[in-house]
Amino acid sequence: MTDRFKIAKCAIAVGLATSMNVAAAQPEERKALFGETHLHTSWSMDVFSMGNTINGPDQAYMYAKGEKIKHPLGYDIQITTPLDFIGVTDHSEYVGIMVEGNTPGSAVSKMSDMQPLIKRDDSPEEATRLVQAIFGLWAKPPSKQLNDPKVAHDIWTKNLAIADKYNDPGTFTTLHSYEYSSNINNKNLHRNIFIKPGDKTIYRPFSMLDSAHPEDLWKWMDTQRDNGIELLAISHNANFSSGLMYPTDVDSLGRPIDAAWAESRMRNERLIEIKQTKGSSEVHPLLSPNDEFAQFELVTLGMIGQPETDGKIPQIVSSYARQALKDGVTMEDVKGYNPYKFGFVGASDTHNGAAPYRQKNYFGDLGVFNGTAEKRLEQSSMAGFDARWFGPAGRTGVWAEENTRESIFDALHRKETFATSGPNIKIRFFAGWELDNLNLDGKSWVKEAYDSGVSMGSDLPNSNKDDAPTFVVAATKDPDSGNLDRIQIVKGWTKNGQNFEKVYDVVWSGDRKVDDTTDKVPAIQNTVNVEKATYTNEFGSVELKTTWTDPDFDPNLHAFYYARALEIPTPRWTTLQAVELGVKRPGVVPAIVQERAWASPIWYNPTKDKKADESLTVAKIEKMGGTQVKGKDLETYVKGKALFIRNNVTGTSFKIRYAPEMNSIVMYVGRDELQPNLTGDLELMEYLGITTPYKFKNDQVVTQFGGKEIGLSIYKVKDTYYIARSNEYGFVNYEVLKEPLSSFSEMRESSL
Amino acid sequence: MKNTVKNFLTEPLFHFLILATLVFGLYGFLNTENESDNSIVISANQLDKISNRFRLQWNRVPTNQELENLVELHVKEEILYQEALKLGLDENDQIVRRRMAQKIQFIEEDVSKIPVPEEEMLRTWFNENTHLFSTPKRVSFKHLYFSPDKNGGMQKSFELASATFEDVKEANFETKLPADISDQFMGQDHFSNVSVSYIQKQFGSEFAAGVAQATDKAWTKPIRSGFGWHLVYIDDIEDESLPEYSAIKDTVKGAWLEVSKRTVWEDYYNGLLEKYTVSIEYDENGV
To answer: Helix axis angle, A57-65 relative to A149-166, nearest 10°?
Structure first.
């Protein structure tokens, strides 16, 4: 009986809600609100196949507010800390068709395109078959039978009505949203679309059935905006995109990326989802070998709908946010536009209508697939994924004046957002030229930071001084979760088509000292007892804050900065549930996690530009009378030889051996040396003797990195050889040294 | 005369007669083998339905030829259905089972079965379910914060909070306390008129429970939150309150309908469930 009455209570809350007193609030009055920006209910096509036929949008809103609801497998689930806001984002593709088509006798159930989508039984095998059939359908040209604009319009209207019913200004906000679920050759290009509630709304969602190309989605969004409807997109699961999410040369239609493309993307895609149940998309250890915290909730081998017997391996390059931010500042510098100036959010992508946000409350996200602890801990495939890789949902944080649709949408739009891996960690990040005297002990610093600086998600204003800007960062722990270990500032910058990154520890708990050998703050004391799956808050801080000035600031270089706060180590759900069941802890995932929060970046754009004077480009080589070494000459110069090379941007020198067996290895590179993007963990590779195959293709020496081919073009100017890397925008940044670096190494005997 | 014929031709009665002849003819044909079991009767009502379905799709009445074809199709389906039933093909067919279960749910869920509520009944229901309409308990308080970061851990900050309690226990809300009596808190020091669930979001479950139990116009002993220890002065407690029925009459009616919609089906199902004995036979492994 009580369950029913709870239902009623939700519905009538609206009737009692009083309208908010909307006074023009000052920025310093903005508070952190936590919400969900990616959640599926039984209305999504694929959800039906996962056995969730019970939790629709109503149940999703009730759950978000703290009510107990049922998991699709029948047991009670309840959120640990209720949300402040939520956007339900059902897949717009064939929305509602599964329910209709699986109703025998309905018109849809008789359509030929529907036949593979009719559920035969409740087995997990049948669920897997259905998920693949659904993604197979999405991959094909739209089915005219199943894609009816009128049906989509009706469902959208119903969807808004339910959202409006639960919207309670000042207490609980429901947003208007849906998911655009584009998938090209199993490469994920999904986006969640948020429509600002107002007098007008879209007629129906623009879905992948209208076009699989995000470029067309942006065009549609532009049209809506011209009609007075404000909206924004949040891309997600770049980690499943196999390099399609953040391209640097051609767009999804194969056209060269240009300023118009970049502007269109930034006008519409303000944010990216950096963490969700199916992994994090911030960074990959292969791309950031010097970030000791990069190995966090990775799901690297994701390809949505990939058949079990298929052999494709997704590309890591261009599939993670940090690299995109770096490529973005390089494109800004070299080409004058940056398509990757996004802020961060975190979310669930649950298909149960309800998401777990904590390790201790983890109940899976995909209906029957991972609805029981036994099933989750098994070595089993779930539509191509190992369930043990998945984890609790991320959360979206916004700094907003009040808990209303207007205020939250505006915060999302101006990118004053942060993401967390699940806990309610609050993080705030500012930058400015006159913040160095800020007193963080008082309460007035927030106002001063807004007054004389910019908040996260913004550009630093121009300065005529060459001084480094000051950053202010403050994080507060989730009162129901672990203490804080440290705050880091991640910096990315660019020079001559190369880009670089460095992670700075800026404030940390306790009296730990920076380790001279690593230049890093040592790991915090680990209190996790894996046998009992417990931890304590004996170490760590409840609050961390500091001002920080970039010691390596160069006023001539484009750069971005974002902040990351880490919790102390706590047991991962796999550890907790293995202990609970008394089974072996799965070894395919770490036993502990360090939950975290990411504050949206702040960008620095130099006013002066000196790069043209120092750099060497292919065009300049040609002017100098240089020629490219090609064909047989190239092979003779490289194969079976070792080249000593200097990166003229960083001044770092190294050697590459090109074995006759067509394997190569880079040598003499220390971990402390600055390396441009897409070089990987050279120190470890050399140490372990791990080689990379190379081949000759189109007059280049081609190797493969993270699934992407990278070519070296070699040029000869008089008696000097220069090398250009294909991912460095036409710059010729490497010079072959005439003498070997070390006296005892073999001499390079080749010469043309 | 011509007109009369034409009118007659478009008369439903005429169609009926034609079809009736046709159908009876079919009966005759079909019933030659086993007259008693294999009878198919197509009523005037069914004929109307067949004709109407056509009209909905094509926006005109079917021609006689078309109607004949439709009836023929219908008869064919009927015959095959009868034969399938005889062979027991409906048993253990997932789609048939689901469809039949759905059908009974559609019938029983019918919202139109819910009566328009009488004023008196609504008022009684309101009185029985006051918790649905009450505003939750709200608290106004200020707090002093003792940070484990600044005082060397939770134990030390607890000791400090306990010692400070002795200093402030006589003070009231207006008493101006020295600024350095406690540590700077990262959030607000003063909250007015907030719900317990709001406090839980800001301070964690343990603190929210502590504040919910505290008494009005007094300092609490140290209460623990996820951030450290606190001394809390409760300035005001607004207990759960209930608006007058007359003020929220429409809301009550809406809530009643909402609940009834959900209960009408559940009550029906629970009634059915009571009529059945369900036993599950686990195998020897308990699976």
So the answer is: 20
Has residue A118 got a pLDDT over 90? no
- Looking only at the bridges linking them, the beta strands covering A231-236 and A720-725 are unpaired
Residues 26-45 of A with CB under 8 A from B: 34
Helix H or strand E encompassing A485: strand A484-495
Rg of the Cα atoms in chain A: 27
ipTM of the complex as predicted: 0.85
Least Cα distance to B79 among B31, B44, B17 occurs for B31
Residue A541 three-state SS = strand
Quickly list DSSP for A236-250.
Answer: E-GGGSTT-SS-SSB
Q: Rounded distance, CA A605 to CA A469, Å?
A: 12
| CA pair distance B179, B189, nearest whole angstrom | 12
Q: How far apart are CA B188 and CA B51, in angstroms?
A: 72
The number of C-beta contacts closer than 8 angstroms across A and B is: 94
From A142-151, A442-451, A503-512, the region with the lowest mean pLDDT: A142-151
Q: What is the largest CA-CA distance in chain A?
A: 89
pLDDT tens figures, A390-427: 999 999 999 999 999 999 999 999 999 999 999 999 99
Beta bridge partners of A188: A183
DSSP code of A39?
B
A314: Cβ–Cβ under 8 A, 6 or more apart, which residues? A187, A240, A241, A242, A243, A300, A301, A302, A303, A707
Q: SS3 of A651, please? A: coil
Which residue among A8, A442, A478 sits closest to B226, beta carbon to beta carbon?
Answer: A478
Give first-to-last CA distance, chain A, whole Å: 88
Q: Which two tokens stand for residue B203?
A: 């301070």
A510 touches chain B (CB under 8 A): no
In sequence order, the 6+-apart residues with CB closer than 8 A to the CB of A304 are: A135, A183, A186, A188, A237, A240, A384
Query: Does the predicted model carry a pTM greater than 0.80?
Result: yes
Non-local (6+) Cβ contacts of A58 within 8 A are: A7, A10, A162, A166
Say yes or no for a CB contact (<8 Å) between A5 and B132. yes
Across the interface, do A543 and B187 touch by the CB < 8 Å criterion? Answer: no
> Chain A residue with minimal CA distance to B254?
A12
Give chain B's contact residues with A (Cβ, < 8 Å): 94-96, 98-99, 102, 129, 131-133, 135, 147-149, 153-154, 184, 186-187, 197, 200-205, 207, 225-228, 248, 250-251, 254-256, 258-259, 262-263, 266
Amino acid at B233: Y
Per-residue pLDDT in tens (0 to 9) along chain B, 287 residues: 455 555 555 666 556 556 666 665 555 555 544 444 678 888 888 888 888 888 877 778 888 888 888 899 889 988 998 898 888 888 878 778 888 888 888 777 776 677 788 889 899 999 998 888 888 899 999 999 999 999 999 999 999 999 999 999 988 878 888 989 999 999 999 999 999 999 999 999 999 999 999 999 999 999 999 999 999 999 999 988 898 998 898 889 888 887 887 778 788 888 888 999 888 877 776 55
Counting other chains too, the contacts that A710-714 makes at CB distance below 8 Å and 24 or more residues apart are: A710/A678, A713/A618, A713/A628, A714/A628, A714/A629, A714/A634, A714/A637, A714/A638
Beta-sheet pairing, A231-236 with A269-276? parallel
- Find out whether A172 and A85 touch, Cβ atoms under 8 Å: yes
Cα dihedral B250/B252/B254/B255 (nearest 10): 160
**Residue A136 near chain B (CB below 8 Å):** no
For residue A696, what are the contacts with CB-CB under 8 A and spacing of at least 6? Answer: A634, A635, A638, A639, A702
Q: E strands along chain B, which residues? A: 138-146, 190-195, 218-219, 223-225, 228-238
Helices B2-10 and B12-30, axial angle in degrees (round to 10):
60
